[in-house]
Amino acid sequence: MFVNRREVQIQWGDCDPANIVYYPRYFAMFDDSTSTLFEVAGFSKQDLVRKYGLVGIPMVDTRAKFYIPSTYGDWITIETKIESIKRSSFEVKHNVYKGEALAIEGFETRVLVGRDPVNPDKLKSAPFPAEMVAKFTGS
Q1: Any residues with CB less than 8 A from the CB of 136 and at least 6 apart, and which?
Q2: Please, which residues have CB within 8 angstroms of residue 72's CB and are 6 or more apart in sequence?
Q3: What is the mean pLDDT of residues 46-50?
Q4: How many CA within 13 A on the CB side of residue 99?
Q5: Average pLDDT estimate for 88-109
Q6: Structural class in CATH, domain 1-135
């Protein structure tokens, strides 16, 4: 499986009055991590639009399990990978580490979306391109 790791320093604006990360900020970090995963794998947002005719990879479900809090100034590592791919949907997993300890498990279900060929004003799920499947699954 293709995995991307990125280091993130917790900023003042990420934290609530108790000085711990306000949980919606993690979901923004997860979104950035998914975009970065595609970019690092060689599929930039421009490629998604121009080469594959997609308009995006919207999230249709998300959740997280929180084990260890982070505070202003902490460094965390977000490890992101695609766990499974179906026709147009896929499951993303984010493991967040604080040092060596697993701090958070984040989960997303996303869908590849393009314009509906019958009605271009509407969106429609699009099949996962074979070269993307191969890159993300290693097969």
Answers
A1: 1, 2, 41, 81, 82, 85, 90
A2: 10, 11, 12, 14, 15, 19
A3: 88
A4: 4
A5: 98
A6: alpha beta
